[in-house]
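tool_log.txt
---
The assistant was asked to compare two proteins side by side. It first ran the structure predictor on the initial sequence, then on the second. Raw inputs and outputs are pasted verbatim so the downstream comparison step can read them without reformatting.
(1)
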Amino acid sequence: MSVEQIEAIPAKAEGLRDAALVSLMAYAGLRPEEASALRWKTSATTR
């Protein structure tokens, strides 16, 4: 997929959460299973 195609997908998402998830998966190369396993408490920015 081209960058333009990837960036068009979140624009059509129903909400900010879905748009962020699609962007994360596309740019980080995550599979759906990997993305769904992420939790806020495991993120690097959580203190």
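(2)
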Amino acid sequence: MLGVDVADAALDIARRKASERGLEAEFQAADALRLERLGQRFDTAHLRRGRAPGRTR
């Protein structure tokens, strides 16, 4: 499993949560709308828009 986000803070949270749950996953800083730039193929992609960690607006 590969998780991507443009925000390093979000990646840190994802890494911590995966570790707490005993999950194996890789996380990279990248634009989820430009997955082809990662040089990999994906069976599926899930995109969720939401507030960035630490932002109030």
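---
observation on (2): The two ends are 30 Å apart (CA to CA). The beta strands are 2-5, 26-29.
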